[in-house]
């Protein structure tokens, strides 16, 4: 596709434009707060205070951040290959099977540090499996990945409902959840990490899977920019035709990309299941798979962008809970609005402010004006 | 006779469940045939249902409620149109965004205005669609076989239900027998050719998106003004996605849409009625399997195992006039 705009400097491309898009999304959210009859400034204060005001709040913020790093990375990896994996929600849900199976089998015999790797493999395996089918259908049968992954989200919801009802639920129990895991299935909290900064984690379920998320982010960076596979994925994403001419096996790359994406989404299940609840509950994903879309868009599909974007959404989730406590007319559904607006302005309308920003930047510096004249022509 | 009675009841609830699906799937047909993919059907329906519930309660008028539903849905369609036609953004991303914005704001606004946990207040008779009794429905009820078919199945539905079923041939006629329809389909297959003929691709796609908004608006109004007495939080419950599945299952054709929606509606009605019922030979069918069946069928169809669903050729691709 032709590039209709002059090339912007990197700081504007990766810093300014996402910030402007975010700012617009937040301004409109502020308008909604005004319509509801509350003060947006007060809401912002409660949000930031609720997210960072105390060690425990920060712990909760980072707990949510962990989840969103996983789902954001999942969406980003697929984006690099030109695939829109909208099924992170379902893949994370199915990934829970792997975690639950590992924990239910070994939590009485193994200590957590031996069980954790098994659970990671289990989560990644089931997540990858659930993403592999849409990937294979796209690669071999040409069915559109967006539609199949949406369908698979619904199928996953029904399947998990069935499994929790008939398979995982202990006898005589009424609620749809597995039994509570013994100590082997409980991840330690990162209180030592927090205490370095003189903070107490309190009741927050901030746990060791945060470190795994950071490791995964680094792994994705290596994969995408430092390996042959990543190069092939990016080539596919930029130009499928070029990839085909270069002899890259299209079908193989699509399936592998989707499996990596699904594995990352599946690993999200570790955080709530082993880190917080110590059991698998109905609907434990709670929309995190969809938040991943917003995170990947804001983070420009780069791990260095995804981590701050995940932190932003972690802040929204934890701070949003605080807002709804302080200002009852603003429930946590406010976050869903903000999430939608972020997706709209950072995703679908990402080029809306670009012409204006280009004009301002190149208008200010005489050197830039020349560059614009030559490049833009 | 008992079996017949069951059949009539099942058919009745199938019609009820299918109505919003048909309207929403036809809505999707108009935009997707024009080359604009729309996974925001769910959000538009939800927004419309909320607007209908709110305005019908405030004005006590069905007509105003329906009008508000259509207005909100068309506005949301225009946002989608602006993002995906004018700004050439990703159509999928824009649809996802609209779904989220609507899902959140209907709850926040509903709670702020009515304080009933995201509901709109229950509507009186004057704020709802009544049912239409076809002539002689009562007199003919006693006639064997045909009587119940006429009085219980054909008669006694909401006007929007009849409208939905009439919209199927109407959509076919618009898309296949009018100049607007020909151009609309052409713009979804080969926008360059349409442009060369001197017709504005942009304006044509905007009109398609508006058609989608109108139909989604009616679908939403059906949910809160006819099927229920008011709006409840998240009341579309995935119907927009089922409609999308039906649209694909129907291979983007009006007549097939009717059958696909009736099939998916029937599965739903059947699942509700036979929950936990042990069938001969098969035994108990888990209700979750019945719920997942529309999605599974769509995946199988998309994979080309039962026929092949070929989407409009230029679908999902923004049109760039000059390169």
UniProtKB/TrEMBL annotation, chain A:
Subcellular location: Cell membrane
Record-annotated membrane-spanning stretches: 16-36, 57-79, 112-133, 145-164, 204-224, 253-270, 290-313, 334-353
Lineage top rank: taxon: Bacteria
Gene Ontology MF annotations: transmembrane transporter activity
Membrane topology of the entry: Multi-pass membrane protein
Keyword flag Cell cycle: no
One GO cellular component term: plasma membrane
UniProt key word Transmembrane: yes
Pfam families associated with the record: BPD_transp_2
Keywords, ordered alphabetically: Cell membrane, Membrane, Transmembrane, Transmembrane helix
PANTHER family in alphabetical order: ABC TRANSPORTER, PERMEASE PROTEIN, GUANOSINE ABC TRANSPORTER PERMEASE PROTEIN NUPP
The protein's name: ABC transporter permease
Organism: Shinella kummerowiae
Automatic annotation (TrEMBL), chain B:
Claim: Acetylation is one of the keywords in the record: no
Membrane topology recorded in Swiss-Prot or TrEMBL: Multi-pass membrane protein
Compartment(s) where it occurs, according to its Swiss-Prot or TrEMBL record: Cell membrane
Species lineage: Bacteria, Pseudomonadati, Pseudomonadota, Alphaproteobacteria, Hyphomicrobiales
GO cellular component, one term: plasma membrane
Predominant cellular place of this UniProt entry's protein: membrane
Database matches in Pfam families: BPD_transp_2
Sorted UniProt keywords: Cell membrane, Membrane, Transmembrane, Transmembrane helix
Domain of life: Bacteria
Transmembrane segments: 62-85, 92-114, 159-176, 206-225, 231-250, 257-276, 288-306
Sample GO molecular function, one term: transmembrane transporter activity
Protein's name according to its UniProt entry: ABC transporter permease
């Amino acid at each position: 596709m032709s590039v209709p705009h002059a090339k912007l400097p990197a700081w504007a491309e990766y810093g300014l434009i996402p910030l402007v898009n975010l700012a617009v999304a937040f301004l409109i959210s502020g308008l909604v707060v005004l319509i509801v009859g509350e003060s947006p400034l007060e809401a912002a204060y409660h949000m930031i205070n609720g997210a960072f005001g105390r060690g425990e709040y920060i712990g909760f913020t980072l707990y949510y951040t962990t989840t969103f790093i996983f789902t954001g990375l999942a969406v980003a990896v697929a984006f690099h290959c030109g695939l829109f994996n909208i099924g992170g929600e379902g893949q994370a849900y199915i990934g829970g099977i792997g975690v639950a199976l590992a924990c239910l089998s070994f939590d009485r015999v193994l200590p957590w540090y031996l069980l954790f790797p098994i659970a990671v493999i289990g989560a990644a395996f089931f997540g990858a499996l659930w993403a592999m089918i849409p990937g294979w259908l796209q690669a071999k049968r040409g069915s559109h990945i967006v539609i199949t992954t949406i369908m698979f989200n619904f199928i996953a919801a029904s399947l998990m409902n069935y499994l929790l009802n008939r398979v995982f639920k202990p006898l005589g129990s009424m609620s749809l959840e597995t039994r509570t895991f013994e100590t082997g299935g409980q991840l330690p909290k990162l209180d030592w990490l927090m205490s370095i900064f003189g903070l107490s984690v309190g009741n927050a379920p901030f746990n060791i899977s945060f470190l795994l998320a950071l490791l995964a982010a680094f792994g994705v960076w290596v994969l995408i920019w430092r390996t042959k596979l990543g190069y092939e994925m990016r080539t596919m994403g930029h130009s499928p035709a070029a990839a085909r001419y270069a002899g890259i096996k299209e079908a193989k790359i699509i399936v592998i990309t989707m499996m990596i994406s699904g594995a990352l989404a599946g690993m999200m299940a570790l955080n709530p299941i082993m880190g917080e609840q110590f059991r698998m509950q109905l609907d434990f994903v709670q929309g995190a798979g969809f938040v991943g879309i917003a995170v990947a868009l804001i983070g420009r599909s780069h791990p260095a962008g995804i981590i701050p974007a995940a932190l932003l959404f972690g802040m929204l989730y934890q701070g949003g809970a605080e807002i709804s406590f302080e200002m009852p007319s603003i429930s946590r559904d406010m976050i869903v609005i903000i999430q939608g607006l972020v997706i709209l302005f950072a995703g679908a309308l990402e080029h809306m402010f670009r012409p204006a920003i280009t004009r301002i930047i190149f208008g200010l510096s005489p050197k830039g004006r020349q560059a614009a004249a030559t490049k833009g022509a | 006779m008992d079996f017949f009675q069951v059949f009539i009841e099942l058919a009745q609830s199938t019609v009820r469940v299918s109505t919003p699906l048909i309207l929403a799937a036809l809505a999707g047909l108009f935009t997707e045939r024009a080359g604009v993919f729309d996974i925001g059907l769910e959000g538009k329906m939800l927004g419309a249902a909320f607007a209908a519930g709110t305005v019908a309660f405030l004005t006590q008028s069905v007509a105003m409620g329906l009008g508000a539903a259509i207005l909100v849905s068309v506005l949301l369609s225009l946002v989608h149109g602006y993002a995906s036609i004018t700004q050439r953004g990703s159509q999928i991303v824009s649809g996802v965004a609209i779904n989220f914005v609507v899902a959140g704001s209907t709850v926040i606004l509903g709670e702020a205005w009515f304080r009933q946990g995201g509901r709109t207040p229950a509507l009186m008779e004057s704020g709802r669609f009544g049912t239409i009794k076809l002539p002689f429905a009562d007199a003919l009820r006693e006639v064997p076989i045909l009587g119940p078919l006429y009085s219980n199945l054909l008669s006694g539905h909401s006007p929007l239900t009849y409208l939905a079923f009439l919209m199927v041939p109407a959509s076919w006629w618009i898309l296949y027998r009018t100049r607007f329809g020909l151009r609309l389909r052409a713009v979804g297959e080969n926008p360059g050719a349409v442009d060369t003929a001197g017709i504005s691709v942009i304006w044509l796609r905007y009109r398609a998106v508006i058609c989608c908004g109108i139909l989604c608006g009616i679908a939403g109004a059906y949910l809160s003004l006819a099927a229920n007495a008011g709006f409840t939080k998240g009341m579309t419950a995935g119907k927009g996605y089922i409609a999308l599945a039906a649209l694909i299952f129907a291979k983007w054709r009006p007549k097939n849409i009717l059958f696909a929606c009736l099939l998916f509606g029937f599965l739903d009605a059947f699942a509700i009625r036979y929950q936990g019922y042990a069938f001969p030979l098969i035994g108990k069918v888990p209700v979750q399997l019945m719920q997942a069946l529309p999605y599974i069928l769509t995946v199988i169809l998309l994979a080309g195992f039962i026929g092949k669903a070929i989407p409009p050729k230029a679908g999902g691709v923004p049109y760039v006039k000059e390169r």
